[in-house]
Every structure is written in structure tokens, then in C-alpha cells.
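hiii so um. not sure if this is the right channel but i have a protein structure encoded as C-alpha cells and i wanna go backwards to a sequence. like what aa goes where. can anyone help
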């Protein structure tokens, strides 16, 4: 199903991927990166994850573009933590040399009383991609 994605991933020797019949998982290359996954959830339905952030797609091409975007240096993930627990993830994309927030996914239950900190994570794969429509607003 994801054969063409696997072929593209092979071009970057720093990337390792786990491939299943309905999913691909790419772990971060280093501690400053984040995991990227794509999963076929049903007929014509896909989900893409960047660490804890996720988005559903009903278009295969858009899901693949989002997956590639997450691996590229044009995507950054703003992660909010309470203590050591990650609880909110915001996808940011580069627009005119500036980082712009796009969408956020968060947990409903987290240790709100703990100190808040922010981490920025980014992957650096050398992949050609077109941002998905949701990120081209």
C-alpha cells in the first residue's frame, strides 16, 4: 500500500522505518526530532501522527503529503509539558521565514498543577514534498 513512500524514505539513509501492511512508522533520528506515522484506518481513511499530534484524512495524497511534511525541516512541533508529561502538540510550518502555528492536539487529563515547559521538536529529512491543503491556508 505505501510502497512509493518506502522508496522515497530509502533515499535518506538517516531514516529508518517500520513498515506494516497498513502503516509506516519513522522514529526520530535524534532527541530533537519526533516520531512520524501514517496508518490506513479504513477504506479511503488515513491518520497521520507527529508524536502526540494527529490528523485524519480521507484523501491518500493529502495524507502522504502530511506524512512527508512531518519528516521535513519545514515542519516543527511545539510540545507543552506539565512536569515531564507531554500534553499538547501544535504543528508549526514555515511561512515567509517565520514559524506559523497551524493545528493543536491535546490531552484532556494531565497534571495541571505541575510546572509548564515548552519544547520544540523538528525533523530534518531531505524529502521533496508539497504541504497538505490544511497547512496551506
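sure thing!! here u go:
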Amino acid at each position: 500500500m505505501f510502497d512509493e513512500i518506502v522508496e522515497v524514505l530509502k533515499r535518506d539513509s538517516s531514516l529508518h522505518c517500520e513498515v506494516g501492511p497498513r502503516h509506516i512508522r519513522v522514529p526520530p533520528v535524534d532527541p530533537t526530532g519526533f516520531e512520524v506515522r501514517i496508518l490506513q484506518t479504513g477504506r479511503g481513511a488515513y491518520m497521520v501522527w507527529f508524536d502526540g499530534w494527529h490528523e485524519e484524512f480521507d484523501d491518500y495524497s493529502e495524507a502522504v503529503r502530511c506524512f512527508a511534511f512531518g519528516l521535513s525541516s519545514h515542519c516543527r512541533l511545539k510540545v507543552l509539558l506539565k512536569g515531564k508529561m507531554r500534553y499538547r502538540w501544535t504543528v508549526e510550518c514555515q511561512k515567509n521565514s517565520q514559524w506559523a502555528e497551524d493545528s493543536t492536539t491535546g490531552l484532556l487529563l494531565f497534571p495541571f498543577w505541575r510546572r509548564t515547559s515548552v519544547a520544540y521538536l523538528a525533523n530534518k529529512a531531505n524529502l521533496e514534498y508539497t504541504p497538505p491543503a490544511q497547512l496551506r491556508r
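oh and Residues 3-135 form one domain.
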